[in-house]
Amino acid sequence: MKKLTILLTLLLASMAMVAVGCGGSDDSGPTKEEYIAEADKMCEESNAEIIKIGKELGTNPSDKETVEAVKSDLLPELESRAKELEALERPSGDEDELEAYYQDLDDGISTVADDPEAAVASDDNPFEASDKAAKEYGFKVCGAS
Question: Left if phi > 0, otherwise alpha if psi is -120 to 50, otherwise beta: which for 138?
Fold first, then answer.
């Protein structure tokens, strides 16, 4: 059960990175509130996928199965979403704060990618910094692990 809990925590924490900009009708870009609302909506959808992955692993996956799920399901998703996220138009005035968040997120992804076995075995959350940044920015769902 601990392995499933670790995987789900790792996956939920990673969802701090799921966000989509939502612009208004003018060229000023999204407001912070629009950005957060859309991001949190996307995180709710992503959380459903995370639960699905956890259910597919079962209640007592081996370390090998858990690591394989991280490699085959989690990392490609994180890397793809991070690229999409970083390409989005940011709310005016929030660029620096979000850039720091994206860097924390990229660091967490790199930690998992560099050694997925250690990430699964560890009680440490490689997304702790990005989770904190997401909460401080105002996300309600994203970054809540």
Answer: left
